[in-house]
Amino acid sequence: MAVSHDAYRHKGSGSQNVAYAVAGGLSAQSSAFGSQTYAIRVSTCSLPDGTNNGARISVGDNPTASATSALLPLNWIEYIKVGPGQKIAVLGNSAATGSVSVTELTD
Prior knowledge:
Elements: E1 9-20, E2 28-29, E3 39-44, E4 55-60, E5 70-72, E6 76-81, E7 87-92, E8 98-106
Antiparallel strand pairs: 1-8, 2-7, 3-6, 3-8, 4-5, 4-7
């Protein structure tokens, strides 16, 4: 039987910003998620322009974001199911740098 959630709780702690490099640069990883983290809320905020249109993201035990990883557009909030101890990797999708806000969520 599948388990689904329509809401997760904010842990009160466990938020971090992960800075990303320009497209073609090096992928950056977050710190490992806490032992009670089962989902994350990620977003990147900025004014869209010709040099900044979002970030590429990948989640796993030792992830690396690349040009073919999932796109997180600017000013978009995404919820991702994760496991304790996993990480998120980020990489810019354009010629701009920025950061992705990562908030850990629990059941």
